[in-house]
Automatic annotation (TrEMBL):
Segments traversing the membrane: 101-118
The UniProt record lists the keyword Isomerase: no
Family listed: Belongs to the glycosyl hydrolase 47 family.
Name of the protein this chain belongs to: alpha-1,2-Mannosidase
Enzyme class: hydrolase
One GO term of the biological process aspect: carbohydrate metabolic process
EC number: 3.2.1.-
Pfam name, any one: Glyco_hydro_47
Entry's Gene Ontology cellular component terms: endoplasmic reticulum; membrane
Record has Ribonucleoprotein as a keyword: no
Residues at which Ca(2+) binds: T643
Pathway annotation from the record: Protein modification; protein glycosylation
Source species: Diatrype stigma
Length: 655
């Protein structure tokens, strides 16, 4: 009955009530002869029903024997002497109890102090330690709080939107099995290249933003919070590297956003890489600590909107919106802030980016190229920039990319984004797209840049690696909004980028280049005389120059190849991807990882620039892996990618 006791001691003993008279009178100095009494029959009955109290366990047998003898003795003096023994036993038990109580209290106090001073841990299955940032931005008093009511997320059940992804069927034929084996081998090869990059980063640059893949040095460009680590979390998950994922998450949960050597941060880059990376990691793993860390960061980034007109400052953080900000930097925060608002049910994040969207709506048809927005904004004065250059390439790209994606993340409940997309793409089609002039009349398109001189617009027939994203944008927009011709345009832009890859000596397209163009989007005859005047004999016919011949490990071309494969189901895109992948690996691989190169037009060994941006593991290798994977992995009908290739979960319609 009592743990640790021999069985012979497991017997009833005196109850606490029977010893209370002795304890009371001992403490008050009363005569023993006045307090003793022989037990009655009711006392004896109590003896057989009572068990040893906690404080008298060790002396119970002696007490029991003393009382039993007292019941049989007729000699009163003997009874008094035996009562001394009983009292002595009771006192011994009392003092032992006090010592044990003191020990218990001391242990509890020590344990409590340990709990207080040990760092807080997140309530997660894997039990990694969570360290809160040393400054809580959610409690920071705004200098310029919103003067209007906070805009709420659209309410109601998400709409049943059109499927974006092709309805793939499993090929059970022998040919299908052979192809699946080929795709598996390609996918594993991509995974191995990722692991080479990841392991070198862990070994040489852990907790820094980037690895320099030639020298093995580390550098910080984005706050010093481990950009490659956070940016790659969802890639680790998608590739099935769960141990690596949770190791990285355990480290990321100790990030202190207030701990940085930077005097300012790039709000755009911090949002798409860090916040987007954390939100995608949460959407995939459902680890609550990841969302908490994302919310900490979101609260800090929200301070960029603490300006008099509530327009964001792209970098300086001086509580005043910028006067010459790239349009993409201030208008490409919507996906991440909206998803954070959905997950936290805090509408302040959505309110912040909705104000920018409303300004885009006001400006859209007031520009010198109605439908589009200039490359730079004056957010301080809320004025359009005066230089009047227009592009969907560098500095403006993700503004346009996010229009159909915002419609998706909001479940079709905000029609503004369809309106903005349709109007913008009408202008892109009529004013920026061009067909290159080539001897073989290749049926592809590129998006150039337009520059205004007074009322006259000049189209620069340039190609940019950054503008290759447009193939995927047109493809998704066409499927989403029921515009079949946009899917066709998306295919032609994507194939144009692949054509530019194939045209270079290294098999990789340059960062920026110029082409001879046809007068219209229709096929045109080859003009040899023009080529001799404008062309570059060192390049494939049709190219006039490679103005910026670098390759920076960028993902935009493979991004569109992946998206068009998922949209059309055409296996030709998988073959394009494999050619691109092999060329990139050959030209960029180093002993440690993979590096940007200085010139894609050279023959022989390429010159490495010792740079590996985090989008190599976050975007480029992720898209290569996914294009060879089963289509149900990150389905386009369930997820929407941010501009850093982080898949965010779309809201599901009821039913």
């Amino acid at each position: 009955m009592f743990g640790g006791w021999p069985s012979r001691y497991a017997t009833p003993s005196l109850s606490c009530d029977l010893l209370q008279p002795y304890k009371y009178n001992i403490l008050n100095g009363s005569s023993y002869s006045h307090i003793f009494h022989a037990p009655s029959r009711s006392d004896i009955h109590t003896l057989h029903r009572s068990y040893v109290p906690a404080w008298s366990i060790f002396n119970a047998p002696l007490v029991l024997r003393g009382r039993a003898r007292a019941m049989l003795a007729d000699d009163a003096e003997w009874q008094i002497h035996r009562s001394f023994a009983i009292i002595d036993d009771a006192m011994t038990a009392l003092f032992r109890r006090r010592a044990r109580l003191l020990a218990i209290v001391f242990t509890i106090v020590v344990f409590y102090l340990i709990v207080i001073f040990v760092p807080k841990r997140a309530d997660t299955f894997f039990g990694f330690a969570y360290v809160y940032s040393s400054y809580d931005w959610s409690q920071h008093a705004l200098k310029n709080p919103p003067s209007e009511p906070i805009k709420q997320l659209p309410t109601g059940a998400p709409s049943a939107l059109s499927d974006i992804q092709y309805a793939f069927n499993t090929d059970t034929s022998p040919e299908g099995a052979v192809r699946e084996q080929v795709l598996t081998e390609r996918r594993l090869d991509v995974k191995q290249k990722f692991l080479k990059s990841w392991n070198s980063y862990k070994d040489k640059a852990w907790l820094y933003d980037e690895l320099q893949p030639v020298s093995g040095k580390a550098k910080d460009l984005y706050g010093g919070w481990g950009a490659t680590m956070v940016d790659s979390l969802d890639t680790l998950w998608i590739m099935g590297l769960r141990d690596e994922f949770y190791d990285a998450v355990a480290t990321a949960m100790r990030i202190n956003w207030a701990n940085t050597d930077a005097t300012s941060i790039n709000v755009f880059e911090t949002t798409i890489r860090y916040l987007g990376g954390l939100l995608a990691a949460y959407d995939l793993s459902k680890e609550p600590a990841i969302l908490l860390k994302a919310t900490e960061l979101g609260d800090m980034l929200y301070m960029a909107f603490d300006t008099p007109n509530r327009m964001p400052e792209a970098r300086k953080g001086d509580l005043e919106a910028g006067d010459h900000d790239p349009s993409a930097s201030v208008a490409s925060l919507g996906l991440e802030f909206t998803r954070l608002a959905q997950l936290t049910e805090d509408n302040k994040y959505y309110d912040a980016i909705d104000r920018v969207a409303r300004l885009l709506e006001i400006w859209q048809n007031k520009t010198s190229l109605p439908g589009m927005w200039p490359t730079y904004f004056n957010m301080n004065l809320m004025q359009l920039d005066t230089d009047q250059s227009y592009t969907i390439g560098a500095l403006a790209d993700s503004l346009y990319e996010y229009l159909p994606k915002m419609y998706l993340i909001l479940g079709g409940l905000e029609p503004l984004y369809e309106k903005l997309y349709r109007s913008a793409m009408d202008t892109v089609n009529s004013s920026l797209l061009f067909r290159p002039m080539t001897p073989d009349h290749v049926d592809v398109l590129f998006s150039g840049s337009a520059y205004a001189t007074g009322d006259i617009f000049n189209l620069a027939s340039e190609g940019q690696h950054l503008s290759c994203f447009a193939g995927g944008m047109f493809g998704q927009g066409g499927k989403l909004f029921g515009i079949p011709e946009h899917v066709i345009i998306g295919e032609k832009i994507t194939k144009g980028c692949v054509w530019a890859y194939d045209a270079m000596e290294t098999g990789i397209m340059p960062e920026v280049f110029n082409l001879m163009d046809c007068d219209t989007l229709a096929p045109c005859d080859w003009d040899q005389d023009r080529w001799e005047r404008e062309g570059n004999s060192s390049l494939t016919k049709g190219f006039t120059d490679a103005r910026d011949p670098r390759y920076l490990l960028r993902p935009e071309a493979i991004e569109s190849v992946f998206l068009l494969y998922r949209i059309t189901g055409d296996q030709e895109y998988q073959e394009m991807a494999w050619r691109m992948y092999q060329a990139i690996v050959k030209a960029t691989e180093t002993d440690l990882a993979f590096s940007s190169i200085d010139d894609v037009t050279v023959t022989g060994e390429t010159v490495k620039s010792d740079s590996m941006e985090s989008f190599w593991t976050s975007e480029t290798l992720k898209y290569f892996y996914l294009v060879f994977s089963s289509p149900d992995i990150i389905s386009l009908n369930e997820y929407v990618f941010n501009t850093e290739a982080h898949p965010l979960l779309r809201p599901k319609p009821l039913g």
